[in-house]
Amino acid sequence: MAVAAMSDIVKRYGDHRVLDHVNMEIGEGEIVGLLGPNGAGKTTMIHALCGLIRVDSGTIKLFGEHLSGTMLDIKRKIGLVTQEITVFEDLTARENLAFFGGIYGLKGAELKRRIAETLEFVGLEKQANKSPKKFSGGMKRRLNIACSIIHDPKLLIMDEPTVGIDPQSRNHILESVQTLQSRGTTILYTTHYMEEVQAIASRVLIMDQGHVIAQGSIEELVRNLHHEEKIKLEVMEVTDDLIRAIEQLGGVKRVNRSGSKLQIISQAGAGNLDRILSLAKRAGGVISIHADQPSLEDVFLTLTGKQLRDTKED
Ligand SMILES: Nc1ncnc2c1ncn2[C@@H]1O[C@H](COP(=O)(O)OP(=O)(O)OP(=O)(O)O)[C@@H](O)[C@H]1O
After folding, report:
1. b/e burial code for range 231-268 (CB count within 10 A of at least 16 → b)
2. Cα–Cα distance measured from residue 148 to residue 137, given in angstroms and rounded to the nearest whole number
3. Domain named ABC transporter: which ranges (predicted)?
């Protein structure tokens, strides 16, 4: 059974269709990586899934049931880590957890036990009685995650949980996500970091302009693009003439420049490696050239025409 599914979902803000006939499914026990350029509709999809906004048409099912107004029993099975960190700075870490646990109906010994377990899980036992005011960004995010899993949700939705935090906390979060999955939690994980998706996701959803434009395992998505190859060329000097000459070769789909390096996406089997080498030799010195199999980053670039991280800060 799908833990969450959207069929033909449309959500408009004014004339703008932010979700434009979206179909998607999250299977039990998966970590699904949700990727998309800024403004693709990822957060809107998440808010619709959690019942935080109403959609204009289409159906949403959670745990096999149609999402409707209240559904407290179903909503209790979901944990949401929002894009902005949502913790109370005037409360200690423990008090934050007690507050969020209380919202989900936990109390007494059970609440106490879950507070201890989640503090340990996110590595904040020693900070239990401290205010998050004194925490680093990574520690605040870990507390935020603890608050979202205090009720042991079956589906955890995380909206860019690692933006702007230190590498140690980021690794901690990625490991925690994998541990939660091994304990049976299903996870929808949004990020602008391709390497995170590659490290933890069993399946990927790619959104652009309100559409889910691809979904599948990383291997499946890459295989579907097997008709393309990536040629990396480094030359002494990149000129506009060289770029233009490469762009005009049959089968070349795109040329990206970064300093003295060019990355060329070309139809596989078009024989462009040799042609590009000849053009580059004629234009000056060649430092290196080689052809790669496409990666998830290439899948994203080919499908959306954009770099995943073009407007986000590290
Ligand atoms: N409440 C709203 N009113 C009007 N427009 C909105 C509203 N919420 C979102 N939008 C618009 O919907 C589009 C999708 O926004 P959304 O936040 O879902 O994108 P996203 O993929 O999560 O982007 P990012 O990666 O930047 O977080 C954007 O053009 C945004 O401006």
Report:
1. bebbbeebeeebbebbeebebbeebeeeeeebbbbbeb
2. 17
3. 4-234
Q: Is residue 130 part of a domain?
A: yes
Q: Which of 16, 22, 44 to probe ligand 1 with, by most ligand atoms within 8 A of CB? A: 44
Ligand 1 atom nearest to CA at 53: 1
Task: Identify whether residues 9 and 112 lie together within a single domain.
Answer: yes
Q: What is the Å distance from ligand 1's center to 32 Cα?
A: 20
65-66/57-62 β-pairing: antiparallel
Look at residue 308 in the predicted model and tell me its pLDDT: 66
Residue 179's CATH number? 3.40.50.300
Q: Give pLDDT tens digits for 296-306.
A: 887 888 788 77
Which tokens belong to 309?
Answer: 């991280």
Q: Are strands 186-190 and 31-35 parallel, antiparallel or unpaired?
A: parallel
ipTM computed for the complex: 0.96
In the chain, count of helices (H) and strands (E)?
11, 14
Domain residues for the domain of 123 are 2-222
Question: Are 183 and 235 in the same domain?
Answer: no
Distance 43 CA to ligand 1 centre (A): 7
Three-class SS of residue 291?
strand
Query: 257-281 pLDDT, tens per residue?
Result: 998 899 999 887 778 899 999 999 9
d(C-alpha 277, C-alpha 182), whole Å: 48
Residues flanking ligand 1, CB < 6 Å? 13, 18, 36, 38-44
Residue 26 lies in a domain: yes
Q: What token pair was written down for 295?
A: 């990666």
Three-class DSSP category at 170: helix
Q: Give the residue ranges of DSSP H helices in 53-166.
A: 72-75, 93-103, 108-121, 137-149
Note whether 171 and 261 are same-domain residues. no
Q: Is 102 helix (H, G, I), strand (E, B) or coil?
A: helix
Query: What is the DSSP secondary structure assignment for residue 125, as one 8-state letter?
Result: G
